[in-house]
Amino acid sequence: MLESSSVKDRMNALDNYVSNLKEGWALPRERKTVRFTSKQIDFLTQKFDEGLKTSTRWKPEVVVDMMHNFKVDGKFAFSVSEFLSAAQIRSVFSREKSKRAKVGVKVQKTADEEEQDDEESFRDGQALEEVLVRSAMHEKCEKIFDEGDEEEAQPLKRGVKHHSSNQDLPDKKRSSLRKKKP
User: Looking at the record, which segments are called Disordered (predicted)?
Assistant: First the structure.
């Protein structure tokens, strides 16, 4: 009996309990839609473009600090109410990236990148030219050997040295080709 009375007492206590929590206290709060000002968008677009040009992606947390310390003519450019969070900046960067990917906007190359591209294409041209010259020489050599013209073939044979033919080398040079004892 003691047990049933204690249960009844507890039930009465729960009925008399008044909560100080408001109805809907566990529901997520409504978010306000905030439009960014043109000044904020310009600043973030500038940082995004800088990241593309220098090939270093700005971290949103760093951009938040830059936004807090950004000054124009010695005065802070953004008021406290205009500061953005790292999540907001990350979202803007993500939207900007997808927008540019859709449009296919190409970022203008810097002078260094253009110089690198020019140098690379120059080296490619040189390599191609060298391959063509070597190919022509190879064809000429094959033609001479195939025709059996011994007079023209002799200088070509003399100029070719094979790695395994070290018999023609003096002893001093030949000794450097031998394996050294530990």
Answer: 143-182
